[in-house]
Amino acid sequence: MINPNNFGIKTFIGGDYMKVLYILMASLLTIVVMSCESTNFSTTNDDSPPPVIVEPPVVDEEEDPPEEKIYIVDRTGKQWDITHAVNVYNFRADGFQFGLGPHAIKPIINPEMLSPGDPDYPAPNETQIIGATINGDTRAYPLDLLRFNEIANDSFGGIPVAVGF
What are phi and psi of 162, to 5 degrees? Predict the structure, then answer.
């Protein structure tokens, strides 16, 4: 079991683990809400190509044509049906911006935990962490790993847990 005191977390938060956990969760919620309110969903500053718009098939005008589907294609090649957004909410198909696509950032699944005395165990005050205790089981997740993976899917204290950063 990870002891958060060995990470220097007690000094950082004055021993009040629940208060820090609450502040971290409130910060994460604030970031999520702010992201949802943003109109620019682009996650890169590179010169990536604009979304590809797939033209709907040509339909004989004498027949009652079905609703024409409008698609955009992300950089992974996945097509996204944006027909409803364009027809109902008057979004412009060329105005869509999107990030990396689904499954582009792999989560950490059932991470291996270190104990004090293990060779790779960090020194106190060396690593910032997100820590949690559930049903007496305590875990600490280093932020330097979560910066790249963003999510750690774990199970401890008898409960499945998703730690996000």
Answer: -115, 115
